[in-house]
């Protein structure tokens, strides 16, 4: 089967989609992006984790940073901050490591755990990719949150898997239509890096791209 990877969704976009569907569309459909202090802080944190040249081995644990992942089944792609391969007789065979291993992705996050399921859905999407790539079953994954400076473990259960699949289907449908939703203003707009491009007080029906083109022509 042939795959058009140009239409694959970015796993990182799941967080944008949960925060604001319009923000996700502005970034991933209209290709707009602006940095603010929150995105810079998050980028700095990930740069410390994402070093594709670092592969560590400590005893029976291999740590791989910035591992590119993708799923042809769900047509998603991205990069895992850290993936740990722990030697385990009940694990999956990894040819390059010449042994059987249990796989655990670890995602680095700025701030504290959120009430919404956005982080869990993003991490579960990484799990779906890793399972497809390594023909593995992954039941648990982890976050490292910068403020409490500790790991949080989550179970990748059936309910979470169903949720991430539903969200991915919604995103694919919107991306296929090249649809940018109208704005829904709220307190979250103040933290949005695209608030100037989005212009929530002025725009109700047209896209940010068309608004900018109309006013610059």
UniProtKB/TrEMBL annotation:
<dbReference type="GO" id="GO:0051607">
    <property type="term" value="P:defense response to virus"/>
</dbReference>
<dbReference type="GO" id="GO:0051536">
    <property type="term" value="F:iron-sulfur cluster binding"/>
</dbReference>
<keyword id="KW-0269">Exonuclease</keyword>
<protein>
    <recommendedName>
        <fullName>CRISPR-associated exonuclease Cas4</fullName>
        <ecNumber>3.1.12.1</ecNumber>
    </recommendedName>
</protein>
<keyword id="KW-0464">Manganese</keyword>
<dbReference type="Pfam" id="PF01930">
    <property type="entry name" value="Cas_Cas4"/>
</dbReference>
<dbReference type="GO" id="GO:0046872">
    <property type="term" value="F:metal ion binding"/>
</dbReference>
<comment type="similarity">
    <text>Belongs to the CRISPR-associated exonuclease Cas4 family.</text>
</comment>
<keyword id="KW-0411">Iron-sulfur</keyword>
<feature type="domain" description="DUF83">
    <location>
        <begin position="12"/>
        <end position="199"/>
    </location>
</feature>
<dbReference type="InterPro" id="IPR011604">
    <property type="entry name" value="PDDEXK-like_dom_sf"/>
</dbReference>
<dbReference type="GO" id="GO:0004527">
    <property type="term" value="F:exonuclease activity"/>
</dbReference>
<keyword id="KW-0408">Iron</keyword>
<comment type="function">
    <text>CRISPR (clustered regularly interspaced short palindromic repeat) is an adaptive immune system that provides protection against mobile genetic elements (viruses, transposable elements and conjugative plasmids). CRISPR clusters contain sequences complementary to antecedent mobile elements and target invading nucleic acids. CRISPR clusters are transcribed and processed into CRISPR RNA (crRNA).</text>
</comment>
<dbReference type="InterPro" id="IPR013343">
    <property type="entry name" value="CRISPR-assoc_prot_Cas4"/>
</dbReference>
<keyword id="KW-0378">Hydrolase</keyword>
<dbReference type="InterPro" id="IPR051827">
    <property type="entry name" value="Cas4_exonuclease"/>
</dbReference>
<keyword id="KW-0540">Nuclease</keyword>
<dbReference type="InterPro" id="IPR022765">
    <property type="entry name" value="Dna2/Cas4_DUF83"/>
</dbReference>
<keyword id="KW-0051">Antiviral defense</keyword>
<keyword id="KW-0479">Metal-binding</keyword>
């Amino acid at each position: 089967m042939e795959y058009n990877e140009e239409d694959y969704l970015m796993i990182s976009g799941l967080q944008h989609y949960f925060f604001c569907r319009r923000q996700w569309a502005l970034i991933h459909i209209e290709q707009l992006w602006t940095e603010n202090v929150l995105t810079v802080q998050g980028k700095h944190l990930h740069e410390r984790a994402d070093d594709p040249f670092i592969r560590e081995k400590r005893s029976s644990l291999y740590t791989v940073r910035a591992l590119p992942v993708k799923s042809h089944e769900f047509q998603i792609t991205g990069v895992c901050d850290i993936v740990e391969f722990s030697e385990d007789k009940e694990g999956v065979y990894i040819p390059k490591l010449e042994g059987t291993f249990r796989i655990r992705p670890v995602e680095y996050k700025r701030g504290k755990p959120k009430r919404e399921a956005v982080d869990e859905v993003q991490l579960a999407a990484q799990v779906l990719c890793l399972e497809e790539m390594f023909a593995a079953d992954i039941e648990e994954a982890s976050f490292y949150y910068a403020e409490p400076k500790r790991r949080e473990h989550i179970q990748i259960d059936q309910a979470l898997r169903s949720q991430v699949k539903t969200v991915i289907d919604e995103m694919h449908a919107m991306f296929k239509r090249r649809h940018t939703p109208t704005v829904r203003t709220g307190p979250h707009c103040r933290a949005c890096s695209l608030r100037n491009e989005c212009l929530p007080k002025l725009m109700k029906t047209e896209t940010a791209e068309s608004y900018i083109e109309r006013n610059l022509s």
